[in-house]
Amino acid sequence: MFVATALLYPCVLAALCLGAGLLVDRASGRFLPAPLLPCVGAAALIALSQLSTYVAFVAPATPYLMVGAALAGFALAWGRVRTLALRTRQHLWLPAAGLLAYLIALAPVLGAGRPSFSSYMTLADSAVHMLGADYLLRHGQDYAHLDLRNSYGQFVHNYYSYSYPSGADTLLGGSAFLLGLPLIWTFQPFCAFILATAAGPAWWIARRVGLERALAALAALTAVVPALVYAYALFGSIKELTALSMILTLGCLAVAHRSWLARGPARALPFVLVLAAGVSALGIAFGAWALVPVLVLAVVLVGRMRAGSLSGRRPLALIGAGALVLLIAAWPTWTHTSAAVTIATDIANTGNGGNLRVPLRASQVLGVWLGGSYKLAPSGANLALTDALIAITLFAAILGAVHLLRRHAWALAGWLALMLLAWLVVTRLVTTWANAKTLVLTSPAVLLLAWTGVAGLKGLPGRAGTVRPRRSSRSRASSLTPTPALSSTSTRTRRSQARRRSPIAQVAAALLALAIAGGVLVSDAMQYHTSDLAPTARYEELASVNSRFAGRGPTLFTDFDEYAMYELRDLDVGGPDFAYPPSALAASAGGYGQPVALDRASPIALRAYPLIVTRRDPAASRPPAAYDLLWQGSYYQVWGRRPGVPAASVHVALSGSPARQCARIAAVARGVVRDGERLVAAQAPALVRISLAHAAHPRRWGHALRGTLHEGGQAGEREGLVMSTPGGLYAGFALPTSGRWDVWIQGQIMPAVKLGVDGHQIASIAGQLDGNSLVPNTVPPVAVRLAAGVHRISVTRSGGFSLAPGDGGAAVLDAIFLAPAGTDPRGPLREVAPADWPSLCGRSYQWIEVTRE
C-alpha cells in the first residue's frame, strides 16, 4: 500500500495532469510552456470532475472521463510529448525542482515508511475532504437519501449541499478511485503532488527574472515550500494548496500576455480554466486572488486600445468567450452562488480561530520560521536567527522590486505588487483564521520577489562591465519559453559578460541565495521533526470493521475521531462528540471532543443503533446489557444489539466504594414496580492502577492542561504528563496474584518510548495517537507474565537525534494500569430478581439496569 500510494499514485496523477494539459494546449493553439502544463492539466481535470459529479449518475464514471481526457491529450500532441521527453533528459532542473518539492512535502510519510498523513491532530478538516471526495465520486451531488439524524449525513449535507468548495476533492477522488486506493492514504500524496505542480510556474518566473537553471530550480523549490506553506501542506490544507498552484499559474499567464491575449478567444482557454479551477477549489474567496492577474491584463488591454494596436471587438470577443467557459467550467459553484458567498463571508468574519489561539505574524509571509510549530514563536537563539533571516529575505525582496523596475518588467512587477496589495487589503477585512490562509497564499510570491533580488544582485556588472541589452519587443513577445533576458545572445557573449560581472556582487548573491534557501529548508526540517503521523494500523482496523459490517448501521461511534466517518462510511456513523452529533445522543458527551459516556444515553435512543463501536479499554464502561460483543481487534470492539430485546427502563451509572454502590442499587430495586423486571449489573474488572502523581520522573516534564475542546481550541483542565525531553518515569506497583497480565498505556505517543518492568524492556511504543488530545488514547495491551508482589514499571524516552518524523515532538502520558490477561470485555454481567438486590452488594460495578425478561 505504501508503494502504491506514495510512489505509483503520484506518477499516475502526473500523467493525468500532463495529458489534460496537452489537450488544453492543443485546443488553445499550442503556446503553453512545459512548466505550466501540469497545472493547467490539473485545472482542466478539476473542471471535468466538477461537471461529472454534478450529474449524480455520471459521477462514478469520473475516473474514466479523466483518463479519456489525458489519453486524448497524449494522442493529439504526441509530437510535443517526444520533444518534451528529449528536453527533459537534457534539462533536468525543472523536473528536479518538482520532484524535490514532492519529496519534502511528503517527507514525514516517506520517513515513516508506511501509508499515513501528517500533522495529525492539528486540524481535522482533512476528514471532511476525504469524506466529501468519497461521497461525490460515489453519489455525485445527490443528497436526498442522506440520514440527517447521524453525523455522517449531517457532515456531507452541511458542507457539500451548501456549495462547500470541492474542486480539489473531486480531483483527489477521481484519481484515487482510478487505482482503487483508499482516500485516507492518498490524501497526503495528493497534497504533496498538487503543491509540487506549483514548482513549474515558480520556475518559469525565476527564469523570467534572469536566474540560471540551477538557481531557478532552487528558487522554485523554496518558493513553493516556505515555512508557512509547508505547515499547511503537512496538515493537508488541500483547498489552499490547490489554489496556490492556480494563483502562480495565473501570474505566469498574465506576465506572458503577449503570447495569447490578443490572438483569438481560443488562446484564453488556459487562463479561464485555471481561474475556474481556483474558484472550484477555494470558492468565491478566490476572487481576491483572481482579480490580481485580471487587473494586469485589463491594464494591458486598455493600453493597447489607446495605442491603436487593438480594436474594441477583439477584447469583447475575448471577454465573452472567457466568461462562457468560466461559467461552464465552474458551473456547480455558480449554481449556488448565494451559498458560496455565505460560506466565504462566514470564513472571513468568523471569530473562530480554528487551531490558532493567536493570529499569525505578518513576518511569516517571508518564509522563515525556526520553530517546531508555525503557531508558536521561536525561542532563544532560534528567535534571533529567525529575525535575522526574515530581515535578509525582506532586503532581498526590496532588491527584487528595484531589479524589476530597472528591467522594465512591468507585467511581472505589477502582478507581484498587486499580490502584496491584495494581501494587505484582505488582511484588514478578515479575522484570524482567514488571515492565516491569506499569508499562505501570498508567501510564494514574496519568496519569488526575494529571489528576483538575488538575480538582480548576481547580474550587477563590474567596473569594466557593460549593461546587458534588453530584448526587442519582437523577441520578448515571440515565445513563452522561460529564458532569461539574454537568451538571444550568443554563448560567447554571455560568458564574456559573466566574466565582467562584479565578483563582489557574485559572492553577495551566493550568500543571499544561501540565506534564503537555508532559512526555508531548515524551517521545514524543524517542522518535519515535530510532525505527528496518523496511526496506520488503527485506521486499517477501522477499514476492516467497515468491510465486515457494511450496511448494518446506523452505528454509534464512541471514540472521538472524525476520520472514522470516512473509514466507516458504509455504517452511517453517529458520533455524540463530533461537530455534528446525533441530536438524540448529544447529551452522552460533554460537548465537542469530550469523552462519550453511554451511561448518560437514553436507553430508548440507543435502540436506533444496531451497532456500537468502542475503543478497546477495560477501564471504560461496557455498553448496555442488550448488546453483545460481535468482534474485537487490537484497537476496537464492535457490539451488536440482540434483535427484539426491549430497551432497559432504567440505566444508572455506578461509582465510588462498594458500600456507596450498594445504597444506589437498593434505591433502583425499590423503584421496580412491574412484574417480570430484573436487575442486571455490569461488574467492574479488577485493575491495578499506577499513580503517575507519585512516580519518579524528570522535573522538566510538566503537565499539559486540557479541557473543553472547541472547534478552534481548548480550555479547561485535565492533566497529562508531557515527556518533552529524554528521561524516564519509574513507579512501583503490587500484584495480588501471579499469572499473565496486560499492561495498558493511555496517552498520545508519537516519538518512540520504551516500556519496561523490573528492568526488562517489554515493548517499544511509537506513533500511537488518537483523534483528540482530550480523550485518553488507549494503546493496545502488552502482555507480560508476573509473580504476585511488588514490581517496578518504567516508561523512558531515549535521547539523541533521530531522523524519524515526529521524533522531536512530545509524548503525553495519561495513565498506566494492569488487568489480568484475557479479561472478558462482555462482562461479567450479574442478573438477579429485584428482591435479591442485597446479593449484588460487596462488589464494584460499572452500571445497573432494570430490564424485562
Structure description:
With 853 residues, the protein is of the alpha+beta class. Helix 5 packs parallel to helix 12 (213-224) and helix 12 packs parallel to helix 25. A hairpin with a 3-residue loop joins strand 4 (627-632) and strand 5. It has 29 helices and 21 strands. 48% of the residues lie in helices and 14% in strands.
Explain briefly what this protein structure is:
Helices cover about 50% and strands about 15% of the residues.
List the helices and strands and how they pair.
Elements: H1 2-28, H2 37-54, H3 62-76, H4 78-90, H5 93-105, H6 107-112, H7 125-139, H8 151-160, H9 167-179, H10 183-197, H11 199-208, H12 213-224, H13 227-234, H14 238-255, H15 269-282, H16 287-307, H17 313-329, H18 331-334, H19 337-349, H20 381-406, H21 410-429, H22 432-458, H23 473-477, H24 491-500, H25 503-529, H26 536-549, E1 555-557, H27 564-567, E2 573-574, H28 603-606, E3 611-615, E4 627-632, E5 636-641, E6 650-653, H29 658-670, E7 677-683, E8 688-690, E9 703-705, E10 708-710, E11 713-715, E12 719-723, E13 727-735, E14 739-748, E15 753-757, E16 760-765, E17 782-786, E18 789-797, E19 811-820, E20 829-832, E21 845-852
Parallel strand pairs: 1-2, 1-3
Antiparallel strand pairs: 3-5, 4-5, 6-21, 7-20, 7-21, 8-19, 9-12, 10-11, 12-19, 13-18, 14-17, 14-19, 15-16, 15-18
